[in-house]
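Exercise (ungraded).
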Amino acid sequence: MPESPLPARPTLDDVRAAARRIEPFVHRTPIARCAAIDALAGGDVHLKCENLQKVGAFKARGAMNAVRLLDDETASRGVVTHSSGNHAQALAWAARSRDIPAHIVMPTTAPAVKRRAVEGYGGIVHDCEPTLADRLATCERVARETGGSIIPPYDDDRIIAGQGTLALELLGQVPDLEAVVVPVGGGGLISGVATVVKALAPQVRVIGAEPALADDAARSKAAGSIQPHAGDPTATIADGLRTTLGARTFPIIRELVDEIVTVDEAAIGRALRLVLERSKLVIEPSAAVGVAVATDPMFRTRGHRTIGVVLCGGNLDLARLPDLLG
Amino acid sequence: MPESPLPARPTLDDVRAAARRIEPFVHRTPIARCAAIDALAGGDVHLKCENLQKVGAFKARGAMNAVRLLDDETASRGVVTHSSGNHAQALAWAARSRDIPAHIVMPTTAPAVKRRAVEGYGGIVHDCEPTLADRLATCERVARETGGSIIPPYDDDRIIAGQGTLALELLGQVPDLEAVVVPVGGGGLISGVATVVKALAPQVRVIGAEPALADDAARSKAAGSIQPHAGDPTATIADGLRTTLGARTFPIIRELVDEIVTVDEAAIGRALRLVLERSKLVIEPSAAVGVAVATDPMFRTRGHRTIGVVLCGGNLDLARLPDLLG
């Protein structure tokens, strides 16, 4: 494959600057251990607990970094995004810390609980039709009308650098790390993690974890160019991972991520149950995808003795739990 | 109230010896914090995470202490108890660590999942009828036939001393503690905690937390003698707290515990949801009882600024969760 020139992208220094910037606001999340998971993985699994992060997900890191980077005048006009997931809550939370408005464009079909969560952090919800086209159009209209800055959920260097801060912590917490497993949706998290890991500890394998039903990263990595999902991403329980890679995240993943591993829905459900029952941690299904990879019998054969797994979020809908567990 | 002479009971030294004895086998469990709980409690709430303890409950401490205290010849004949709860799993787990048999008497009505959990730790399950009389009779028969030592779930000085070890940790982890809230079933946990706290930090208030439907400790403390539940203990979701105080635990509670606070089922359900959704920790309903007390508006008026709450266990039946949350 010919090398294509890469555009400038976030560096280790950008991540370090982000870490200093967001440090007063976010948690240095702990590492959890679980003998039952270790036994299945055949190694020491270190669970990086971003489910215990502010707003219950790593998204707090990137959103706070982006909000803090705005100059005062720009910031005063507020921030805008389209999301019904953790990025929406994270941006509302980050904006409130600066006392600026957060405009969140959300489809009318989003569950009321998601809307209330954003409003609970002081966000202003704007309705749109449940199509990507109307989400983008509404987002741009709101930004134009308010003068607010659009903060995308993942395809943005400020976001990538912010998410990467968890890898600085992880390398300090687990010095003998051999591999780190990171769930992949739009790729902001794994891009940031890979940027840090390959700069500081290039021998550590960076492995993406994806639902087989939302396998665009695996397919894109294999093809060397951005590919769509082969399956039906709306059918995976890992709703945080249904998005596709972006123009900023894909080149980083192509160059720095070692591999993307996919897992089926049954494995994701088993991993969710495993973490709830044995680690006693509440995670969302997207976080279970990483555990499903680390405990996959095929993965075990690689013989990694010390494995990091990012538990990316803990915003589990308890009412849906019986369905999620099958 | 006239002082009645107390029989000898576990001392701080007994608890310290237990801590040294069990230290290689149990976790020094972490403290979790949660801004949402702090806000409701009006103070800093430090959650002592015994849900992350071995076998998912503080019961590992007392069971291990009792098993380690047996001399080799006695131990070789095994241990016996009647329980379908966390003590059963804890005793099986502790016995396995010494490679001795654990005979667990369990009513035929106990859920299959409880039986499998005990068997998973290598315990031998003996059926009995679901009456206290047959539980006791079967337990004694098994002990007679095997020569095994009966290890009761709470009314035993070895158990009380073992459970108290968590308070040694808590006082080290939260030096400015003003009150500690401890769920009360048979009273083994709070007896051990009160023994330590009143010896080392007598200004710290020790507060029992009980479901209103299983309020024998509150009634017994008020009456100065062991009283039955006024409500129907089988109706509380906090199934670990349905038992009543014993001859060994009651005198300690009478003298050393400052107060027992009861909470209704709605408050327990709300606290369970609060911890799952906001702390991202899996706890069982019995552990929610302590959180329900700490976040009770009446309790808040007391103005404790630094409060410990023992999350006594994490063995939540996920299939029952929708019912538990109401």
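Further reading is listed at the end of the chapter. For now, observe: DSSP finds 15 helices and ten strands in chain B. Chain B has two domains: 12-58+157-325, 59-150.
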